Amino acid sequence: MKTSIYETITNQIVAAIEEGAGLYKMPWHRSRQDITNPQNVVTGRSYRGLNIVTLWMIAEAKGFNSGTWATYQQWQEKGAQVRKGEKAASVFFWKNLREGQEEARGTEEHSPAKFVARAYSVFNADQVEGYEAPVVPALSEDERIARAEAFFSAVPAIIQHEGNQACYIPSRDVVRMVPFAQFKSAGGYYSVLGHELTHWSGAKTRLDRDLSGRFGSESYAVEELIAELGAAFLCGRLGLPNDPRTENAPYIASWLKVLKSDARAIFTAATKAQAAADFLAGFSAPTEVE
Q1: What are phi and psi of 30, to 5 degrees?
Q2: For residue 219, what pLDDT is reported?
Q3: Pairwise CA distance, residues 113 & 245, whole Å
Q4: Taking the model in full, what pTM does it have?
Q5: Domain of life here (predicted)?
Q6: Residue range 126-166, pLDDT digits in tens
Q7: How many domains is the chain partitioned into structurally?
């Protein structure tokens, strides 16, 4: 029986989670190489949703240092040639069955009856010859912190810095954060803040993210997965590292259980995480490193 694109990508994600579980390192954690969201060399636009995780994961496994990708034909348009024997990565787009259009979203936000996932093969800049990446001035750590502070300060959430555990409290609609000074790095602070604000975005008065009908008893664990992905997408926008956290430990088994039983679950989680990241980004002027 032919394996669907959903099964192929889900199996890749499951294998990466299992491999990194001992160190709590998930496929969306980025602490080295290119930490921004991957971009297409021709359009300049960032990939979205699960495509981000897929390309990060492959770049990590292959040791690629570039976050730039394109199809074989697109590299040729840029005057570059994919080296013989290089293996492509798969990304997916949503094809509109009624209108014949495609959206490069990498998210499952459409009715299955109207849209279908279509896979494309892309290659990393490290796999081609004849391409010289433009020189982009690197931001200093202070500049990255300033951008992140401006980005998150624009979100109109009530954030209280107290205690020793970060969380979102739905009954009070409050985000509680551990004081900044207690984090080992600024990136760690903003990653956790992005996680909690992703939870905040799902409130009924905002994105109204209710997973109980879709995932039943596993809905809490899936919400944690969405928050993890949302934080990763936000860190990618801002060019911030996103390190593994031991807080993931209680959820890893549940994530694996859900993903192994439902090939579309990771697509749904990534869609909702992308929606949350977009929602939070909508409160500020563009500050992304994309």
Answers
A1: -135, 115
A2: 94
A3: 38
A4: 0.89
A5: Bacteria
A6: 999 999 988 878 788 888 899 999 999 999 999 999 988 99
A7: 2
Cα–Cα distances (Å) from 152 to 42, 74, 159, in that order, read 30, 35, 10
> What's 22's DSSP letter?
G
Report residue 247: phi and psi, to 5°.
Answer: -65, -15
pLDDT tens per residue across span 156-202: 999 999 988 999 999 999 999 999 999 988 999 999 999 999 999 99
| Beta carbons of 121 and 95 less than 8 angstroms apart | no
Burial class of residue 139 in the structure, from the number of CB atoms within 10 Å of its CB (0-12 exposed, 13-18 middle, 19+ buried): middle
What interhelical angle do 5-20 and 249-261 show, nearest 10? 160
153's enclosing H/E stretch is helix 141-153
Greater pLDDT, 245 or 97:
245
Does the pLDDT of residue 111 top 90, yes or no?
no
Asked if residue 57 is part of any domain, the answer here is: yes
- Statement to judge: residues 41 and 154 lie in one domain: no
**117 is in which domain, residue-wise?**
5-129
Of 129, 164, 185, the position where a domain reaches its end is 129
Number of helices and strands (H, E) in the chain? 9, 10
Residue 99 structure tokens: 């209108």
CB atoms within 10 A of CB 208: 9
d(CA 149, CA 151): 5
Same domain, 61 and 159: no
Residues 28 and 145 in one domain: no
Write the DSSP assignment of 30-93 as a string of letters: B-SS--SPPEETTT-PBP-THHHHHHHHHHHHHT----EEE-HHHHHHTT-EEPTTPPPEEEEE
Residue 135 inside a domain? The answer is: no
Question: Is there a single domain that holds both residue 121 and residue 169?
Answer: no
